[in-house]
Amino acid sequence: MEEHSLNSSYREKLIEHLFIGELLKLSWIKKDYSVEVSKPEVDNSGYDLIIEANGFLRHVQLKTAFVGAETSRQNIHVSLAKKQSGCVVWIYFNQDTLELGPFLFFGGQPGDPLPDISSFETAKHTKGDSSGLKKERSM
């Protein structure tokens, strides 16, 4: 659907809010009420949310794709490895109903750092320079 690419920033925020809502709903259902969610003022450390629950803090980078998308991989910000319990949550969603799921998770146990990503391929810019060369992205 064309609106998903034309309005990708809007969609990204919408999915983020739906995800937070699902976390809070689960906390409510379990009568836990301990989930706290914060957002960074500046987006330069690779995470979108800070989530605390049951004494554990996680720095979470969110990735999204609609169910059936051909996307098979995502870029991870290298600074996420320096954050407490850094992790990536890849949220698939139904592009017609925006129902969330399935969810993919990349991270360690609560309190553990992000698994080593130093051997992963470095992401490249999506647009090439004047000669068509796509340079590596620094982070």
TrEMBL record:
Residues 122-139 have a biased composition (Basic and acidic residues). Residues 29-79 form the PD(D/E)XK endonuclease domain. InterPro entries: PD(D/E)XK_Endonuc, tRNA_endonuc-like_dom_sf. Pfam families: PDDEXK_5 (PF11645). It comes from the Bacteria. GO terms for molecular function: nucleic acid binding. Residues 116-139 are annotated as: Disordered. Transmembrane segments: none annotated. This is PD(D/E)XK endonuclease domain-containing protein. It comes from Pseudohongiella nitratireducens.
